[in-house]
Amino acid sequence: MDTREKILEVKHLKQYFNVGKKDEVRAVDDVSFDIYKGETFGLVGESGSGKTTTGRAIIRLLDPTDGQVLFNGRDVASLKSKTDMMAFRREMQMIFQDPYASLNPRMKVKDIVAEGIDIHHLAKNDQDRTNQVEDLLETVGLNRDHSSRYPNEFSGGQRQRIGIARALAVQPDFIIADEPISALDVSIQAQVVNLMKELQEQKGLTYLFIAHDLSMVKYISDRIGVMHYGKLLEIGPAEEVYNHPLHLYTESLVSAVPQPDPEFERNRRQVVYDSTPEFDGKKRQMVEITPQHFVRASEDELDTYRKRATEAGLKTLI
Amino acid sequence: MENAEENILEVKDLTIDFHTYAGTVKAIRDVSFHLKKGETLAIVGESGSGKTVTTKTVMGLLANNAEVVEGTVKFRGKDILKMTQKQLEDIRGKDIAEIFQDPMTSLDPTMRIGKQIAEPLRIHKGYSREKANKQALEMLKLVGITNAEERINDYPHQFSGGMRQRIVIAIALVCYPEILIADEPTTALDVTIQAQILDLMKELQEKISTSIIFITHDLGVVAGMADRVAVMYAGKIVEYGTVDEIFYNPQHPYTWGLLNSMPTLDTAKGKLESIPGTPPDLLDPPAGDPFAARNPYAMKIDEQKEPPFFKVSDTHYAATWLLHPDAPHVEPPVEIKRRQEVYKKRLQEGTINQGHIHSTGNTSFGTDDDDAIGE
Fold first, then answer.
1. Which of A101, B18, B53, B242, CA to CA, is 20 to 30 A from B313?
2. Where is the ABC transporter domain (chain A) (predicted)?
3. If you ran DSSP here, which 8-state letter would residue B198 be given?
4. Tens-digit pLDDT profile for residues B316-339
5. Are residues B339 and B261 in the same domain?
6. Which residue of B has its CA nearest to A261?
7. Based on the domain organization, do B93 and B138 belong to the same domain?
8. Which region holds residue A73: left if phi is over 0, alpha if psi is between -120 and 50, else beta?
9. Which structural domain range is residue B313 located in?
């Protein structure tokens, strides 16, 4: 029924740490979602919800405990040989949260950006390498002559641009951006978000945008997934999840976002979420309540969610 | 609280330089503001705008390479800048306390939390260990730590980030300070925890009627917390007013830019308005309006002469040449016009908050809304 092309399919992904020991942590527990080509999928959750771990498992920085990650139809876990991994890394890149910690302070910007170009032998000669780096710097809104400087000569926003240039250097199709703007000032956040959107349009990129700032995620994403305690609780179109959340946890998360409006803030009622039902041992799975809008629910909760959706003026399936 | 118009803190013409290897950084340039009893003043600005340096000055905690070129910081009429270390130590933690940004690093990892909360009482008030511990326990309950009796002898690493920030708040408030400085107290926390901490701060403020200087770059937090707002840019205050005046009738193009670059509930898809460029280098601040280079509304005079404060209302001032009678009329961004429409409408209705302190009058202990904390 869906004609859009899936670039990434995550199926029942589990990422446990300290398996079998007393302190076993189920950081990601049975998470499934798809990402379509050319869209931005926002993954939201609090610290410890497993959103970063999910991102890391997808790009194979971690080896998943169980489940599958299909990228362009191919199981990422099946990539064993070095050549396969190299090819995979060219297609999928990552932008990190902390622009201060993620750039080697002892390398010049041109060497940081060109590292991928060097590893994958994408430059014909030195001149070509320099040209590619300078073009990339220009693409992300920096000057060509910035290439001979060191990271410490740049502000946080500029550093994040360098991080974006580095990710773009190998011409990937898919970029995982793990809280790329959380460490930046408000006015700079907007600059970086706009840059990412422009690049997406120019190059047809697909993003997995991981963040805890719901208002920014809503703004940049086409669809949003909400994680809590290692589980995905809700997936749906960004506007719908934000304006008409079905899961109570999502509702509490949305209600906690402060708005730059004093009148709104004075009348704000925060919804307090009680997580005990999550641990009642009932079997739960993702159920499509309204078109494209899924919520993790047990059989007997379905009616409640359908009712919530109807009350919000949404058209339920069935 | 209506008669609490007394200024507990007055900062006048404060100018601070930092001597560095690269040269003299003019971090604070001619900053003046005051703080009334029981109110919350929010100082908003980007990193490097001088908001943290301003509060460090109030605490008497400036680095060694800082030089106070000019100005006074009067706490209850006495100039903090002229005090000896001993006098400062008497005030710090007792009359003026601070909550720092990062709850992970602002607690002593080797000291039990009960002892850390009791410490200010032992030092400043000379309480016996027993009496201090008893009050520390009360405070721990007040900031909403469950099982306070059992947990008072735990170490910081046994608590989550939000709980640690509650402990930091308990330490800051245990002496019932007159001024609480909160420097980005929730920036390191998740939104749901942030909401809890902000609510807690508001409740405690009503209970012990402390004044708060709240430093943040998050305008959403400001909207919910502040009575008055000062917007800082490049070491200067560029606009100040009541929270309603700043959010519904902003005048400085920098304030416009800040409000405009945040997605709100109604922001549609499309391009987010960003402020182009970066803040100026304070080693060599520009001659005119420091925001001129990033300001699409800048006029010639903005590059030559620094704008003075123009009065918008009795409580609202902005340093922009756009308010000069001879300035041409400019159209603010759509989002700002929407806000100004709200202001006009509410001005007619008389529902604009003209700087009254948000306290609802529940200043005594043991009111009904007590339930949320202390359990």
1. B53
2. 8-254
3. H
4. 999 999 999 999 989 998 889 999
5. yes
6. B223
7. yes
8. left
9. 250-266+284-349
Are B304 and B216 in the same domain?
no
pLDDT one-digit tens code per residue, B17-33:
999 888 899 999 999 99
Q: How far apart are CA B188 and CA B41, in angstroms?
A: 21
Q: Give the minimum alpha-carbon distance from B262 to chain A in angstroms, rounded to a whole number.
A: 7
What is the per-residue pLDDT for B265? 59
Task: Give the type of residue at A205.
Answer: L
Looking at the fold, whether B94 and B201 belong to one and the same domain comes out as yes
B145 in any annotated domain: yes
Which residues make Cβ contacts (< 8 Å) with residue B330, sequence separation at least 6? Answer: B297, B322
In whole angstroms, what is the distance from residue A312 CA to residue A245 CA?
Answer: 9
Q: Are A249 and A228 in contact (CB under 8 A)?
A: yes
Integer CA distances (angstroms), B13 to B32, B42, B68, B71, B320, in order: 5, 19, 11, 5, 18
User: Are A20 and A26 contacting, i.e. CB atoms less than 8 angstroms apart?
Assistant: no
Please name each of the domains of chain A with its CATH number: 6-311 (3.40.50.300)
- Residue B338 CA to residue A90 CA, distance in Å, equals 46
* ipTM attached to this prediction: 0.80
Instruction: Read off the amino acid at residue A214.
Output: L
CA angle (A299 as vertex; A295, A304 as ends), nearest 5:
60
Pairing of strands B228-233, B7-20: unpaired
Locate A66 and state its tokens.
Answer: 């169980």
**Lookup: tokens for B248:** 């519904």
| A270·B220 Cβ contact <8 A | no
Contact B247 A252 (CB under 8 A): no
Which of B164, B200, B262 should we substitute to test contact with A (largest number of A Cβ atoms within 10 Å)? B262
Looking at the structure, tell me whether residues B257 and B220 fall in a common domain. Answer: no
**Total structural domains within chain B:** 2
Which runs of consecutive H residues, i.e. helices, occur in B97-179? 113-125, 129-142, 148-151, 161-173
- Distance from C-alpha of A64 to C-alpha of B366, rounded to nearest angstrom: 52
